[in-house]
Amino acid sequence: MNAKITGWLKDHGLFFNPFEPLQADRDTRLWMYWVGNLEVFQVAWEPQAALLLAPWGGGKSALRARLTQECWATPVEARPFPLVYFPGGLYADLTSYLSEIVANGTRELLLALARHPRYFLEASPRSQKAFADFLSAVLPSAAFGLDQMVEEGSLAPLNRPYDPGYDLEIPREERGDWLAFALALRNLLPATVSPLGPAAQWAELLFWIKELLHRPRVYVLVDGLDAWPDTARDPVSLFQAATPFLKAAPEWAQQGCFLKLFLPAAIKPLLTPELFSPELSCGEISWSAPLLSQVLQRRMIAASRGRLDALAALAEPALAGLDEQLVQAVPLLPRELLVLVNRILETHAQAAAPRLEGACVAACLNHYYEEIMNGPYATSV
Amino acid sequence: MALMPLPYNPALFVGRQDKIDQVLDIVTTLLTGKAPPARTLIFTGQRGSGKTWLLHHLKKRFEDEFKDRVRAIFVDLEDWQTVTEPEKFVREVMAAFAQQLPAQAGQVTEEEKFAVPLRRWTEWLVQDVRKWVSQGVIVVLLLDSVYETAPETLELLEQSLLAPLAVEKGVLILMAGRGFPPFWHAPELGIYSEELKLEPFAEADSKALLAKASVDDPQRIRRVIELSGGYPYLLWALGCAKPEKDTETLKAALDYMLKPVLKDPETWQRWQSAAVLEVFDEDRLAKLSGSDLAAAKDFLDTLLETNLAWYKKERRGYVLDAAIHQVWEQVIRLSNPNDWKALHQQAAQLYQNWAKQFQTTAAIWEERARYHEEQILKEAGNA
Predict the structure, then answer these.
(1) pLDDT tens digit sequence for A29-52
(2) DSSP H helical ranges for chain A
(3) What are the helix (H) ranges across B188-264?
(4) Rounded Cα distance, B165 and B172, in Å
(5) SS3 state of residue A264
(6) pTM for this structure?
(7) Sheet holding A218-222, edge to edge
(8) CA of B354, closest CA in chain A: separation in Å?
(9) By CB count within 10 A, which of A34, A41, B262, B315 is most buried?
(10) Contacts of residue B252, Cβ cutoff 8 Å, sequence gap at least 6
């Protein structure tokens, strides 16, 4: 089915299907067509702790993925280091979270070094050895990962577990060095190492990010706290889960590390004014019909390399107002819009007509309305 | 008669005062050590709207007003359009930039130009820029023909030159381009940049430009403004030509503007409905030209591939580059008035039929039909 849709879109001048990825953090092209409130992006981008709120299906993960992508834009030495963290559980205190954060961050640091091996290769032998000791203490599996990388001849073993939303290629000029890096680091890894406590590991991780990657600051992007049964629909539990991060934020800021906590907007009533300070800001993503229109428009522009800016370009004259019609048909949530468009494309692909037709769109809209009327609009993600 | 691009001449420069003031204000802000809202500005506009002239004029204004406090570097990417290999292209551009920044990077030899790793060259350039900035000098990069450059090449240029410069506080980047903007990775070039569109001249600036061509007869001025649509290039070409040569001048302008894509005159004769329709697609082109749909789609694809047309959501169809549309329709109207009228009549009829056939969008098609009917009435009134 996907091949049919892609083939039809290609006939109409689209180089890929821009509506297919429903999960923002799996969309390698998100940076081309991300739509959001620029004020909220500014809050996310500035070097201070921030709460970033959005309704469910309203672009929270997209903002997080976009921010991460910006942090990897050239020149990377001028950008914050994005430490993306999806909690592996819900904990009462920061120490338990910290172990996971450090492990995540160390893997990301290792990945960054593998993509830009000169950072490690140009460091002093003493620094290289010290880093290898740290790596071994935090990631006992590092040796295995490096061995796999050497064996497979690629970064894939390191890259696989990560946020697949951005495609990190080794810069062409550095491809010759990554094997040297992997072998050098592998040889330096000690057989045994003294364990470090979470706080010491955290401080050392921050040190190595700045020392080896020369990044000016670190952003800890915490997402997915609302993905647990306890927190999914209970803002009170969610707030309790978020509290350790909020308490840690001021100290982190002094270390040049800034919390970016992505939460559903449902938590807003629990955020009292006393919580906020000049050191903690808040941005809330909100959607309007014009902004939602841009979701369609920018995706069409990206996929057609500027030639088309509306879905109506693929439709018969009776559907000249198709884009506006679809925006009005859904709640003000981009995910709902993408789900509806995907259904229309799937239905159209089965009909195999040259252009989108009114009957096909009408049928999809009726089906969509029935789903809304009969229950919560459960989007298949 | 053949028209050529007009080299920048400061004595002939007119208008764009708001854009010039905005840029000079930004430079002044940078010289005081403050941060303006955007340090990347992008001038966009149709063919002949004066983008290149504006960049040249800004460079001259920097030199006149700020003297040695601003180092302005002009690079036209069109100079290397025949270089298809992205890395070679980027190295040439970086060499051109470095030559105007006489320092370490500017002393790269011809052999080194292609031997030094790109990232090393980037480091040198950034170091040189920082040296200038540390001396209180603002570095301005004026980059022309940006949008017309291949995406893969632009991406490498962004990584190697533009993004590293864009993050430097003492640097201002001014770009000019026509067509579809590239997807920039760096927020300084994308989210935090500002696009400034160069519209056709309003009446006052049109008159000022025509005065420089010694056109002062009010009737002639009105005629030239009507034919040119206010596009500076066309204003000047028509202003310098004799009135009896208007059609010839417009044809020469059309030849020049379509030169990159002109296959043969018959092609453009066949598809002149594109100029009259104002908004079109392959269906409409096919119907008005009496051609089959496949041929119409091929022609439309040609227009799209060469950035001469694109789909506009609010227009409900494809539109031509506005300057080309202006000239092309005028050429048809003047040299083949019967064809011009017939095409408008056919277009009106087409839309009236669509209004009946597609009732849910009837209002859109009725409005289009009215537009074409009004064009015919207006022409009859003028006659």
Answers:
(1) 888 899 988 899 999 999 999 999
(2) 2-11, 30-33, 38-45, 60-71, 94-115, 118-121, 125-138, 142-152, 156-159, 178-188, 198-213, 229-232, 235-254, 289-303, 322-329, 334-351, 358-374
(3) 203-212, 218-228, 232-240, 246-258
(4) 8
(5) strand
(6) 0.89
(7) A81-85, A218-222, A257-264, A49-54, A280-284
(8) 8
(9) A34
(10) B1, B2, B3, B237
Rounded CA separation A15/A10 (Å): 6
The predicted-structure confidence for B139-195, as pLDDT tens digits, reads as follows 999 999 999 898 899 999 999 999 999 999 999 999 999 888 888 999 999 989 999
CB A190 within 8 A of CB A133: yes
Regarding beta strands A280-284 and A49-54, do their DSSP bridges make them parallel or antiparallel, or are they unpaired? parallel
Looking at chain A, how many residues does it have? 381
Which is nearest to B339 in space by CA: B281, B285, B275, B279? Answer: B275
Residue B210: CB atoms within 10 Å: 24
Can you name the residues that pair with B311 across neighbouring β-strands? B318
pLDDT of residue A380: 41
Whether the CB of B185 is below 8 Å from some CB of chain A: the reply is: yes
* Residues constituting chain B: 383
φ, ψ at A236 (rounded to 5°):
-65, -45
Is the ipTM, as predicted for this complex, more than 0.90?
A: no
Q: ∠ CA B213-B217-B219 to the nearest 5 degrees?
A: 120
Partner A contacted by B328 (CB < 8 A): no
Angstrom distance (rounded) from CA A238 to CA A245: 12
Q: CA-CA distances (angstroms) from residue A197 to A84, A96, A202, A297, B97?
A: 21, 11, 9, 50, 51
CB-based contacts of A218, cutoff 8 Å, min separation 6: A80, A81, A83, A105, A206, A209, A256, A257, A258
CB-based contact A309 B312, cutoff 8 Å:
yes
Q: Provide the 3-class DSSP secondary structure of residue A220.
A: strand
b/e A62-95 (16+ beta carbons within 10 angstroms → b): bbbbbbbbbbbbbbbebbbbbbbbebeebeeebe
| Whole-number Å distance between alpha carbons of B129 and B59 | 17
Q: Are B51 and B45 in contact (CB under 8 A)?
A: yes
Which positions ≥6 away from A55 have C-beta within 8 Å?
Answer: A264, A265, A266, A285, A287, A333
Separation between Cα atoms, residue A372 and residue A339, nearest integer Å: 13
Rounded to whole angstroms, what are the CA distances from A332 to A54, A300, B72?
A: 12, 19, 47
Query: Of the candidates B158, B179, B358, which has its C-beta nearest A306's C-beta?
Result: B179
Nearest-neighbour CA in chain A from B68: distance (Å): 28
Q: In this structure, what token pair is assigned to residue A270? A: 């629990």
Tell me which residue has tokens 């289009």.
B368
Angstrom distance (rounded) from CA A178 to CA A157: 13
Sign of torsion over alpha carbons B142, B148, B154, B155:
positive
